[in-house]
Design goal:
With 334 residues, the protein is an alpha/beta fold. The chain is built from 10 helices and 8 strands. The longest helix has 25 residues. The termini are far apart.
Length: 334
């Protein structure tokens, strides 16, 4: 089923602006995929407003350190650190969480789960899972679970999961999510973006059931001029499809504009758990960040619970399973 008619997606201009971002001094923010695109832009915004930003980048060397160095230069002297991590490898995610706890002093106020891949050829992660599902969802699920004690050391912790307006085209198939029987590069991407929203609602339900102050929020950037997807297509010699994607992206928002829904989700005190933010312009492709509508299947509590249980199983149960409140400590149980 296709999304609702495009004309219903037109939204009035206006809403939130950068002038409403509060002073973030004394807060620690973690941003995954901050070596380029909207992740780099979101990390820069958070640093400029005073946060201590930890960037989580796949590259252990040049790209990650270049991003951290660039951010230090732009962030008016605020503290910046880079933690190398490949989200496709759950062992690395666990180690990165430990490194973050050390650098952050045991407290994380904002976690932006932004890193992602799109349109990969058939690829499996080191743990044997389909790569889009592994990187876009499972790695972030595990990271969030491992960082939960540090998040709960913050008085008002937030987790921002970055999805896509194309989640409307996704499906959740519990028996095929990690190992699809028939593979298509874009179907895998759409499904992983739906999983991001289901995880947002699953985490919101998890926190609400335990009376935790954690806010779980989703955001999508609209259509952004980045290399996501196009570089993966080029690597697979699909030049026509890559060129078409680049042609569309080049006519849309800059990464700095695309990062605004992420920034609002991370800082606006009026945004509640389970909310989705996106651009307020035509078709939700561009414009100021405003509350957006999610597909009905993305808010299905039964699907969210099934994804939660599957993800717990595949990632080694990083979230508590005994029904009690997680301990507010420095993460010794990692």
């Amino acid at each position: 089923m296709l999304p609702p008619p495009w004309r219903r997606w037109a939204r009035p201009r206006g809403g939130w602006s950068l002038s409403e971002v509060p002073d973030l001094s004394g807060r620690t923010a973690v941003v995954t995929g901050a070596d380029r695109g909207i992740g780099l832009a979101a990390a820069e915004y958070l640093a400029r407003y005073g946060a201590h930003v930890l960037t989580l980048c796949t590259a252990a060397g040049k790209e990650g350190h270049t991003a951290a160095t660039l951010l230090r230069q732009r962030a008016r002297g605020n503290r910046m650190d880079n933690v190398p991590c490949d989200l496709a490898q759950l062992a690395q995610v666990r180690r990165a969480a430990r490194d973050i706890l050390g650098l952050a002093g045991g407290r994380v106020d904002i976690l932006v789960n932004n890193a992602g891949v799109a349109a990969l050829p058939p690829t499996r992660s080191a743990d044997g899972h389909e790569a889009h599902f592994a990187i876009n969802h499972l790695g972030h699920f595990a990271l969030t679970g491992h960082l939960l004690p540090a998040l709960l050391n913050s008085p008002q912790p937030r987790v921002v999961n970055v999805t896509s307006v194309l989640h409307w085209l996704g499906r959740f198939r519990p028996d095929q999510a990690a190992a699809p029987r028939r593979y298509h590069r874009w179907t895998a991407y759409f499904d992983s973006k739906l999983a991001n929203l289901l995880f947002t609602h699953g985490l919101h339900a998890f926190a609400d059931a335990r009376g935790l102050p954690l806010r779980s929020i989703a955001a999508h950037p609209g259509l952004v001029n980045t290399t996501l997807g196009s570089r993966d297509l080029r690597a697979d010699a699909r030049h026509l499809e890559a060129s078409a994607l680049e042609w569309v992206q080049a006519r849309r928002q800059s990464p700095e504009q695309g990062a605004l829904p992420l920034l609002r989700a991370a800082t606006d005190p009026h945004i509640g758990g389970g909310d989705l933010l996106g651009p307020g312009g035509r078709w939700e492709c561009s414009g100021p960040p405003v509350p957006a509508r999610a597909a009905r299947r993305a808010t299905d509590p039964r699907a969210a619970e099934r994804l939660w249980q599957l993800s717990q199983h595949l990632t080694g149960h990083p979230f508590p399973t005994d029904g009690r409140k997680p301990t507010r400590d420095r993460g010794e149980n990692l």
